[in-house]
């Protein structure tokens, strides 16, 4: 049978679908009945791969419906799709053209499918995301206090800040309660937080957004998070290695953990000081500490043995 590839452009009201190599294009409404109809139709089609882009959560119901129907689906990185469009000279943009581009991307690139998290992991991830949003709003409101002089506006800002602080505290309690109800999560939390420098927020982010922790190699995990350095060499020129891509929120939390870790964690402190003594920029040394911390956490979860202060390994 000829391989079939499907691209789906997701928006709030509609799902535009393109199929290769037949060239068929159609649309469904982005609603519970529409998603069900589309999932049934694609199941009957038996495509090799379905590709769509992440759209802030609008794609979640569709992805789950397709997975439940046994359809292989990938939520593609938007940057990769944009780069692919530029490389193929497809610069025009409409919903139908985007669906056709995604179908072509599926056929030519065939990105690897990522396992869809369990319902409990999705629930944890939603709470972690919401806490981050509240913290971001708190930072913005506190920054506005420095530039506002009108007393009425300042009073309004203070009231909103108080409300946001209360909501952050409530979310912390909800996350703590959710963690306490799951024996597996509690065990994982205790393992991760046994490492000096790793706190509750880092632990929650890892559990929610890095379910591969403990299941793949350290190198694979570094690549997933975006901590694997990429070469920039050409001919005799040797460019500076750099990191990019991956899961930005996980990387951000690992950065904060590494900043704390070089003060309280002897292994990370030694790595940082050794690299700085070798003339490495502090930022480069800190990224190396992030990578080292991730490898340690991965080994701890895989072995189910907590941190030992002997040599930082398990």
Automatic annotation (TrEMBL):
InterPro entries attached to this UniProt entry: Transp_IS110-like_N, Transpos_IS110, Transposase_20
Q: Where is the Transposase IS116/IS110/IS902 C-terminal domain?
A: 190-272
The record, for PANTHER family, names: TRANSPOSASE (PTHR33055:SF13), TRANSPOSASE FOR INSERTION SEQUENCE ELEMENT IS1111A (PTHR33055)
Ranked from the top, the taxonomy reads: Bacteria, Thermotogati, Deinococcota, Deinococci, Deinococcales
What is the designated name of this protein?
A: Transposase
**Pfam families assigned:** DEDD_Tnp_IS110, Transposase_20
GO terms, biological process:
DNA transposition
Give the Gene Ontology MF terms in alphabetical order: DNA binding; transposase activity
Specify the Transposase IS110-like N-terminal domain's residue ranges: 6-148
Determine the domain of life of the protein's source.
Bacteria
